């Protein structure tokens, strides 16, 4: 009976947590230590969130794409991967193992000043619980929520019991509109005027994930 009372009390306490309390709980999930990190393949650049050291991010070439094993979250790009006007960008992401809690990976478009304090881009992510998110990073650590939080979609392949899942993400910029697709299915659309769409395209992978990234497909329309 005492154990039951403790379980009930714990559930009530968790239910009563404010969003700030929940965020603090997530902040107690520290970035993992990763052996062999600190460098990026030739031609690539990386930026971690909040200036975290790159030493705990292992980023290597694998096939025609990249494989990342992360402590801190990163964005990855090449200066040559730029898109303007109407275009379509696509890549496949394969998560290989379970993180401590659902973490996200995906594409970004419209990147500018990526190595500096005023970095900007629009990013489109999915995570292992079958949800997607679209946001804009507008200056450093400031962001604007485009999709109004994490949204469930049956288009997103959920991770299995071992944390494995593969999802193709694509973004179509055409005629003043932007369509976001997962595995060939539309999940969100917005006007291009309210997003950053013109500039560098690349990958974003959140912390403590192990993910294979296929080569970026960038197609001018």
Characteristics:
221 residues; mainly beta; 8-stranded antiparallel beta sheet; 2 helices
Q: Which structural class do you get from the secondary structure elements?
A: mainly beta
| Strand percent estimate | over 45%
Q: Classify the fold: give the CATH topology of the largest domain.
A: Jelly Rolls
Helix percent band: 10-25%
Low-confidence stretches: 1-26
The CATH C-level name of the largest domain is Mainly Beta
The span between the termini is 66 Å
Query: Measured on Cα atoms, how large is the radius of gyration?
Result: 18 Å
Q: In this structure, how is the largest beta sheet organized?
A: 8 strands, antiparallel
SSE string, helices as H and strands as E: HHEEEEEEEEEEEEEEEE
CATH architecture verdict of the largest domain = Sandwich
Q: Assign the CATH superfamily of the largest domain.
A: Exo-inulinase, domain 1
Number of helices: 2
Which shape, going by the Cα principal axes?
A: globular
Give the overall average pLDDT: 90
**Domains (count):** 2
Overall number of strands: 16
SSE layout:
Layout: H1 2-15, H2 19-27, E1 45-48, E2 57-62, E3 65-70, E4 74-83, E5 87-95, E6 104-112, E7 120-127, E8 131-139, E9 142-145, E10 151-152, E11 165-174, E12 177-182, E13 185-191, E14 199-205, E15 210-213, E16 217-220
Antiparallel strand pairs: 1-4, 2-3, 3-15, 4-14, 5-11, 5-15, 5-16, 6-7, 6-14, 7-8, 8-9, 8-10, 11-12, 12-13
What does this structure look like?
The chain has about 220 residues and is mainly beta. The chain has two domains: about 1-30; about 35-220, Exo-inulinase, domain 1 (Jelly Rolls, Sandwich). It is about 10% helix and about 50% strand. It has two helices and 16 strands. Strands 1, 4, 6, 7, 8, 9, 10 and 14 form an eight-stranded antiparallel beta sheet that branches. Strands 2, 3, 5, 11, 12, 13, 15 and 16 form an eight-stranded antiparallel beta sheet that branches. The protein starts with a helix and ends with a strand.
